[in-house]
């Protein structure tokens, strides 16, 4: 019988990693995360649970049942053992002067510079967004191709540590003509990546996957009323 305080999902991941002979860093990169992602998950309890998609990916990678990597209930957070804080920790997030456009955009890393810094509760970034504040950027949307989902002038929070495109999810990417924000479609057998807009006037189109540069996954948006 397992002790009451044993985290069976985390123990299952440790065992699967060991049996496969891979490293936590390699498995983290396979999820499209930074190298320390699974190490923090196991040792620090952040995030508290793996997403369904992450458990499915790890199950395939580690040749194990992904259900064993999931929690039946949200585990208790680890107790804080450090000094008391009088206010919520803040994470500083950069806004850069780059626009995620509906059509052709502008993207050249040599000329990107910081426009402003936004301060957000660190717990919101790490726990709600499941992201590292250092990897988060804020971009402005231009054009109407993603309406009504995203409108011209909206700002989007982009996790630049997540660069593995997943069907159905929203990503910012460079697709040869400019920086765009699109929902990822299926990857064809010929290596063409399908990019999907929300507006009916902008039909889906394809680009060679090896020519697409993924900037990051869209986590949140800020829109004006």
Overview of the molecule:
The chain has helices at about 10-20, 25-30, 35-45, 50-60, 120-130, and strands at about 90-100, 115-120, 135-140, 155-160, 170-175, 180-185, 190-195, 205-210, 215-220. The longest helix has 13 residues, at about 10-20. The protein is α+β, with helices and mostly antiparallel strands and about 220 residues long. A hairpin with a 4-residue loop joins strand 5 (about 170-175) and strand 6 (about 180-185). A nine-stranded mixed sheet has the order 2-1-3-4-9-5-6-7-8. The model is unreliable at about 80-90 and about 100-115 (pLDDT under 50). It folds into two domains: about 10-70, lambda repressor-like DNA-binding domains (434 Repressor (Amino-terminal Domain), Orthogonal Bundle), CATH 1.10.260.40; about 90-220, Umud Fragment, subunit A (Ribbon). The termini are far apart. It is built from five helices and nine strands; from the N terminus they run ααααββαβββββββ.
Tally of helical runs: 5
| Order of SSEs | HHHHEEHEEEEEEE
What sort of overall outline do the alpha carbons produce when their principal axes are compared? globular
CATH topology of the largest domain: Umud Fragment, subunit A
Overall CATH architecture of the largest domain: Ribbon
Low-confidence stretches: 80-88, 102-113
Structural class: alpha+beta
**Rg (CA only):** 19 Å
- CATH class categorisation of the largest domain: Mainly Beta
Helix content: 10-25%
Adjacency order of strands in the biggest sheet: 2-1-3-4-9-5-6-7-8
Instruction: Please describe the biggest sheet, giving its number of strands, its sense, and whether it closes into a barrel.
Output: 9 strands, mixed
Q: What's the end-to-end separation, in Å?
A: 54 Å
Mean pLDDT: 78
β-strand amount? 25-35%
Structural domain tally:
2
